[in-house]
Design goal:
Layout lengths: L4 E7 L4 E7 L6 H15 L6 E9 L8 H21 L3 E3 L2 E3 L15 E3 L8 H10 L18 H4 L1 H16 L12 E6 L5 H6 L6 E7 L3 E4 L5 H12 L19 E4 L5 E2 L2 H7 L8 E2 L1 H9 L5 E4 L6 E2 L5 H4 L9 E2 L7 E4 L7 H9 L15 H4 L2 H22 L4 H10 L1 H25 L4 H13 L13 H9 L6 H21 L9 H5 L4 H7 L9 H17 L3 H9 L3 H14 L2 H9 L7 H25 L6 H25 L6 H14 L4 H9 L3 H14 L3 H14 L2 H9 L6 H28 L5 H10 L2 H14 L6 H15 L6
Parallel strand pairs: 2-3, 2-6, 7-8, 7-13, 13-16, 14-15
Antiparallel strand pairs: 1-3, 4-5, 8-9, 9-10, 11-12
C-alpha cells in the first residue's frame, strides 16, 4: 500500500497463478479478490498451479481527465504493484533459490510467481514482462502470459471455444447437434458485445446462431427474427472493427421491430416482434425503461443465454442482492427460477451465483423434463483461457533453458512457440471436452450414486477440503431428501466436486514425486505438443515442474475417465496409496484398450442419442474399475506399469477368443453365453458396430480372464484350458449368475460397499480354487467334460448348491445374507470328498 496504489495478492499454494485485476471497488476490493481467488482455485483444477488472484485500486484517480490520462495512471499503479510483488518474491539464479535482499522470510523457498491479465489489465502483459526481464526474474516473459510473445487469447478465441464445447454438449443432451450440416438455427440472448473476446468470439462459432437480444454497459441490441446468415456476417464485421460497439451494427440488417438503443435512454419502445421474441405479454406496456428491458432479455425464452460480460446477472430466488455483491447490476438481475432459456453458457466469470446455478439446474426435473436447466459452472465453461496461459508458461520455462544454454536463439524460440499454437489449443480444448463428458456421466449415474456421493462429501468435509455450506452442497438431511425424491446431485454441484477431487489427487501425487517413476514417462510427454517432444526428446522429462505437470495430467485423466469417487473407493476397499491406484488405473486402461474404445464411442456424438453415448462410456468406466481393483488386490505393489501392460495386454486379447466362442453359441437362459449375446446385441442397438459391441460386452469378463492368466501361471497349465474350465464352471455351477447378482447389490453406506466388494472377491477367489480342483482331478477331455466329470463325483454337494442358488433367486430382501450362504456352500465343493 502507498498513497498512489493499494493492492493485494492471494495464493492457494507455492505454485499458483491467476489474474491481476484493476478493481473499481476501492471500499471492498479485498473481499472481491478473495471471492475471485476461491473461484480461481476451482478453475485451476485442470492446470498445474493452484489458484491465485491479485488486484489493485488507484488511490488518486485522474478524475475529470480523458480516458488516456486515466489509463496512464492505471498503468503506473500496475507497474508499482508488479514491482512490489517481485520485491517479495524469491528468484532462481543458476538453479539456486536467491531470496530478496534485506528481507525476513517466514515461509519456505518461493520463486514461482506468475500473473495473468484480468479485468482492466487485458493489455498489460507486456508491461509486466518488461519489469520481470528488467529485474532478471527467472521466469522472464513467462511471468505474465498472453503478451506479444505469447498466446493471444482473443486471436485464438480459446476461452470462447472452450465454453462453446459446453454449449454443444448441452445441445446434444437436448438431442440437437448444432454442428451438423443441416442443423436448424438456435436462438440466443447474451451479455456482451462483438468487440469483447468471449462474447465476440463465441457469437462467431456457429453460422446458425439467431441472436435475438444482447446488451453491454453501453447499448441494448434487439433483432427479434434475425437472419442467421446475414447477421453472422455483420457480427463478423463488428468483431474485426477496432473498438466497435452495438451502435456500429448496420440497422438495415436488423429484422423488423428491432434496433439498437443506448442504455441512457429514458424509455425504449417495444414492437410486436420484440414482445414475441422476449416472451412479453401482448397487452403489456408499449415501452420499458432500459433496466426493465435488460431484465427481460435475461428472462427471454431462448435456447441459449450466452454470458460474455462482466457482472453477476443471475442469482437464486433465496439470495438477496446484497449477498451477490454486485451492486451495479441489482436493478436488472434475474432469479434462476425466472429464466426461460434451455442452456446457460458461462463464458464470463461469476455471471451466475453458485446457488443460482443449482436452482436453475434443479429445473431439469420439472415439466417439461430436461428442457430447461442445462448449466455447468464458470470454472468449467471458461477454463480454456487459464489452461492456455499455463501451457504457455510451462513451454517457456522448458524452452528458455535451451535458450540459456546458447543452442537456441530467442528468435527461433519465439517462432517455435508460434508454431505450437494449434497444438496447444488442441490440448486445451481436450480438457473442456473431457470435463463435459465427465459431468454428463456423473449426472446420468447421480440418482443411483446419491448415497456414495453423500459419503464422499462427508469425507471431503471431515478432511477440511470443503465447506459444504460455502459450496452450497446438500446437508446430510439434504442428501436424504434427494434420495427420497429419486434425484442425484446437479451438474453445478458435481462440477465443484470434480474440481476439489482433482486438486486433492494432484496434491497427493505431487508429494509422491511421480516423475521419478519411469512408468509415467509417456504420460508426461503427452502434456507437451507432439512437435516439441519430437524435437527435444527426453528434455521434456527434465522440466523444472515435471512433478506438478505429471500429477495434474494423471489426476485429470483418472477423474475424467472414472469419476470423482474412483480413488476414494479404491483406497477404501484396498487401502492402496493414491500413486498405486493411479498405476493400477494406467495398467487397466491400457490392457483393456480403453483409449481406442473411448475415441470410437465419442465419435458417435450427434449420430446416436447422447444418453446412449453416456451409457457406453460408463461400460468402460466400470471395466477399468474392476480391473484396477483386481490389480491392487492380486499383484505385488508398487506395480511395474510397463511390465504389467506387457504381461496382460496381449494375453487378454488372445483369451478374448474364448468369449467370442461363447457369444456365437447363444447359450441357455441365464448362462454367460446368453449374457454376452444379449449385451452385445444391446450395444449394437445403441449404435456400436459389431466389433465394438463385442468388446463392450466382454468388459464384464475382464477380471475372469485375468484370473485365467494368474491360475495358468501358478499351475503351469495351458491358458486356454484354464480359461475353458473357468467359463464352464461359470455356467454349470451358475457362478456367472451369482457374480451378476453381486454386482447389482446396493452400496448405500461404507459397510454395504465393503461387504459387496468382499463378496465379489470371495466369489472370484473360490472360482479359481474350484478350477484348480477340476484341473487336478483329470488331465484329459474338453474343459466342459472335465467339469462335468468333476461335478458327477460330487453330485450330492453340487445338487445342494444348485438348489440353494435357485431358492435365493426369489428373495427380494436380505440378498447379501442369502448370497453369503450360497458362497459358503460353494466353498465346500472344492473340499468335498468324492464318492
Amino acid at each position: 500500500s502507498c498513497p498512489q496504489v493499494e493492492g493485494v495478492h492471494l495464493r492457494m499454494g507455492a505454485v499458483a497463478r491467476g489474474g491481476l485485476r484493476w478493481s473499481d471497488r476501492p471500499e471492498d476490493f479485498r473481499t472481491e479478490i478473495l471471492g475471485l481467488m476461491k473461484a480461481q482455485a476451482v478453475k485451476n483444477a485442470v492446470i498445474v498451479p493452484a489458484g491465485a488472484k491479485g488486484g489493485f485500486v488507484v488511490r488518486k484517480p485522474a478524475m475529470g481527465l480523458d480516458r488516456a490520462a486515466q489509463q496512464a495512471e492505471g498503468i503506473a499503479c500496475y507497474q508499482t504493484f508488479i514491482g512490489a510483488l517481485l520485491d517479495l518474491t524469491d528468484n532462481l539464479i543458476g538453479g539456486t533459490v536467491v531470496p530478496p535482499a534485506e528481507t525476513v522470510r517466514w515461509d519456505t523457498d518461493d520463486p514461482y510467481l506468475v500473473v495473468a491479465a484480468d479485468k482492466g489489465t487485458a493489455t498489460f502483459s507486456d508491461i509486466a514482462n518488461e519489469i520481470s526481464l528488467a529485474r532478471h526474474h527467472w521466469l522472464g516473459d513467462a511471468f505474465a502470459s498472453g503478451g506479444s510473445v505469447g498466446y493471444d487469447h482473443k486471436a485464438m478465441g480459446i476461452t470462447a471455444r472452450g465454453a462453446w464445447e459446453s454449449v454443444k454438449r448441452h445441445f446434444l443432451r437436448l438431442g440437437r447437434d448444432i454442428d451438423a450440416a443441416d442443423a436448424e438455427a438456435f436462438t440466443v440472448a447474451g451479455v456482451g458485445d462483438m468487440s469483447g473476446d468471449v462474447f465476440g468470439n463465441g457469437m462467431l462459432l456457429a453460422n446458425n446462431i439467431a441472436l435475438v437480444a444482447a446488451f453491454d454497459h453501453r447499448h441494448i441490441f434487439l433483432d427479434p427474427t434475425p437472419n442467421p446468415t446475414t447477421s453472422f456476417a455483420e457480427r463478423a464485421r463488428l468483431f474485426g472493427l477496432p473498438r466497435s460497439s452495438w451502435d456500429d451494427y448496420d440497422r438495415t440488417v436488423i429484422s423488423t421491430g428491432g434496433g439498437v438503443w443506448p442504455r441512457t435512454a429514458k424509455a425504449i419502445p417495444l414492437s410486436a416482434e420484440v414482445r414475441i421474441a422476449l416472451g412479453l405479454a401482448a397487452d403489456g406496456p408499449t415501452e420499458l425503461a432500459p433496466n426493465e428491458l435488460l431484465g427481460a432479455v435475461l428472462r427471454a425464452p431462448v435456447d441459449l443465454l450466452w454470458n460474455g460480460g462482466i457482472g453477476t446477472y443471475i442469482k437464486a430466488s433465496t439470495e438477496t442482492h446484497s449477498q451477490v455483491g454486485d451492486k451495479a447490476n441489482d436493478a436488472i438481475r434475474a432469479d434462476a427460477t425466472e429464466l426461460r432459456c434451455a442452456i446457460v453458457g458461462e463464458g464470463g466469470n461469476l455471471g451466475v451465483t453458485q446457488r443460482g446455478r443449482i436452482e436453475f439446474a434443479h429445473r431439469l426435473r420439472q415439466e417439461p423434463i430436461g428442457t430447461i436447466g442445462w448449466i455447468n459452472t464458470d470454472a468449467i465453461d471458461n477454463s480454456a483461457g487459464v489452461d492456455t496461459s499455463d501451457h504457455e508458461v510451462n513451454l517457456k520455462i522448458l524452452v528458455d533453458q535451451i535458450v540459456a544454454e546458447g543452442t537456441l536463439t530467442i528468435e527461433a524460440r519465439n517462432t517455435m512457440l508460434a508454431q505450437l499454437t494449434d497444438d496447444v489449443a488442441h490440448h486445451v480444448l481436450a480438457d473442456n471436452i473431457d470435463q463435459n463428458r465427465l459431468l454428463g456421466n456423473l449426472y446420468a449415474e447421480g440418482p443411483g450414486m446419491i448415497d456414495l456421493h453423500a459419503r464422499y462429501v462427508g469425507e471431503l468435509e471431515a478432511s477440511g477440503r470443503i465447506d459444504r455450506a460455502l459450496e452450497a452442497l446438500p446437508s446430510v438431511a439434504g442428501f436424504a431428501e434427494r434420495k427420497a425424491g429419486g434425484a442425484g446431485l446437479t451438474i453445478p454441484e458435481l462440477a465443484v466436486l470434480v474440481a476439489h477431487t482433482k486438486l486433492a489427487i494432484t496434491e497427493e501425487l505431487v508429494d509422491a514425486r511421480p516423475a521419478d517413476d519411469v512408468s509415467f514417462a509417456h504420460s508426461l510427454r503427452t502434456y507437451f505438443p507432439i512437435q516439441l517432444v519430437a524435437q527435444l526428446g527426453d528434455r521434456v522429462l527434465a522440466h523444472p515442474l515435471r512433478h506438478e505437470i505429471l500429477a495434474t495430467v494423471l489426476a485429470n485423466r483418472v477423474v475424467n475417465r472414472n469419476g470423482i469417487t474412483f480413488v476414494f473407493r479404491m483406497a477404501e476397499e484396498t487401502h492402496a496409496s493414491v500413486i498405486d491406484i493411479v498405476r493400477a488405473h494406467t495398467v487397466a486402461t491400457s490392457i483393456l484398450d480403453i483409449d481406442n474404445y473411448w475415441a470410437a464411442v465419442s465419435a458417435l456424438d450427434g449420430r446416436v442419442a447422447d444418453a446412449n453415448v453416456v451409457q457406453l462410456l460408463l461400460e468402460a468406466d466400470r471395466a477399468v474399475e474392476r480391473v484396477a481393483r483386481w490389480l491392487l488386490r492380486s499383484r505385488t505393489l508398487p506395480l511395474d506399469v510397463p511390465a504389467a501392460i506387457a504381461a496382460y495386454g496381449p494375453t487378454l486379447a488372445e483369451l478374448a477368443s474364448l468369449l467370442d466362442g461363447l457369444q456365437s453359441s447363444g447359450g441357455t437362459p441365464g448362462s454367460d453365453a446368453e449374457a454376452l449375446a444379449h449385451r452385445s446385441a444391446r450395444f449394437v442397438e445403441m449404435g456400436l458396430n459389431e466389433s465394438l459391441a463385442r468388446q463392450a460386452a466382454q468388459f464384464e469378463f475382464a477380471t475372469s480372464l485375468l484370473d485365467v492368466v494368474a491360475s495358468a501361471d501358478a499351475t503351469g497349465q495351458d491358458r486356454n484350458t484354464v480359461g475353458g474350465v473357468l467359463l464352464a464352471l461359470d455356467d454349470l455351477l451358475l457362478i456367472g449368475r451369482l457374480r451378476r447378482r453381486i454386482l447389482r447389490l446396493p452400496r448405500e453406506d461404507q459397510w454395504d460397499a465393503l461387504a459387496r466388494s468382499s463378496l465379489r472377491d470371495d466369489l472370484a477367489g473360490e472360482h479359481v480354487v474350484l478350477a484348480r480342483s477340476v484341473l487336478a482331478a483329470s488331465a484329459s477331455g474338453t474343459p466342459e467334460e472335465r467339469v462335468r466329470n468333476w461335478m458327477t463325483a460330487r453330485e450330492e454337494a453340487v445338487t445342494r448348491h444348485l438348489d440353494l442358488v435357485t431358492q435365493t433367486e426369489s428373495i427380494h430382501g436380505s440378498e447379501l445374507a442369502a448370497l453369503s450362504v450360497v458362497l459358503r456352500q460353494l466353498r465346500t465343493l472344492s473340499t468335498e470328498r468324492t464318492g
